[in-house]
Design goal:
- The chain has about 210 residues and is mostly helical.
- The protein has two domains: about 5-55, no CATH class; about 70-175, no CATH class.
- It is about 45% helix and about 5% strand.
- The protein has six helices and four strands.
- It has helices at about 5-15, 70-90, 95-110, 120-140, 150-155, 160-175, and strands at about 45, 50, 55-60, 65.
- The protein has a two-stranded antiparallel ribbon with strand order 1-2. It has a two-stranded antiparallel ribbon with strand order 3-4.
- A hairpin with a 2-residue loop joins β1 and β2.
- The longest helix has 19 residues, at about 120-140.
- The chain is elongated, with a radius of gyration of 23 Å.
- The N and C termini lie far apart (about 50 Å).
- The model has no long low-confidence stretch (mean pLDDT about 80).
């Protein structure tokens, strides 16, 4: 079964469930490594009578997925939204108010869906970190040539890699304690598999 057949099957399922597909807003990337990008087909895909051409990046639930899975587009869009929010913040308000505005308008954008950024290259991590490096001097009204290390420490802000790890740690905790959404399946214990005999150590108090 090729891609067109899969899309047609999905479209038929949507119609049978009283859902209306919208080909005009449909986009799809063909994912491959950079070395194999030239081997990908460029011919359009026919979806519900409309011809859809492959794109370099597509948006899915607020996440921009590049055809090479580099997440560059997602990082660039996130930075653009964060800096746009910083430009809208009034500098005349007190520092405490500035800090609350940055957390509400910038941190929320920086942390949105950041769990997909695990394993991001260092240069993209530095680009995201530049958002916090600009926000900290704004709060303390530092000059351009002033060091920002003390400001970041006093704000108790996690750096971007640590924020991603923190998001994953929270998600893992919720999964283990049954508080995660239903689409996160619980971890499978090897002793719970069908036909698996329990180990003798399970009858003891040894951990």
């Amino acid at each position: 079964m090729n891609i067109a057949d899969c899309v047609e099957a999905a479209t038929s399922w949507m119609r049978s469930n009283r859902l209306q597909p919208n080909p005009d807003k449909t986009e799809f990337p063909l994912c491959a490594t950079v070395q194999r990008q030239h081997q990908l087909p460029t011919s359009p895909l026919l979806i519900d009578g409309c011809s859809i051409t492959p794109v370099q990046s597509a948006r899915d639930l607020g996440i921009y997925v590049d055809c090479d899975l580099s997440m560059r587009t997602h990082v660039q869009r996130t930075m653009s939204r964060c800096f746009a929010a910083l430009r809208q913040i009034r500098r005349s308000v007190p520092s405490a108010t500035l800090q609350m505005l940055v957390v509400a308008l910038v941190h929320s954008r920086l942390d949105c869906e950041n769990g997909v950024l695990v394993g991001l290259p260092a240069y993209l991590m530095r680009q995201l970190q530049s958002v916090l490096n600009v926000a900290a001097p704004l709060i303390y009204r530092l000059r351009t040539r002033d060091h920002i290390t003390d400001a970041l420490i006093s704000l108790h802000w996690l750096q971007v890699p640590e924020r991603i790890q923190y998001k994953l740690a929270i998600l893992a905790y919720r999964v283990l304690h049954g508080d995660a959404p239903l689409y996160f399946s619980p971890p499978i214990c090897i002793d719970d598999l069908p036909g698996r005999r329990p180990l003798r150590s399970t009858n003891t108090n040894r951990k």
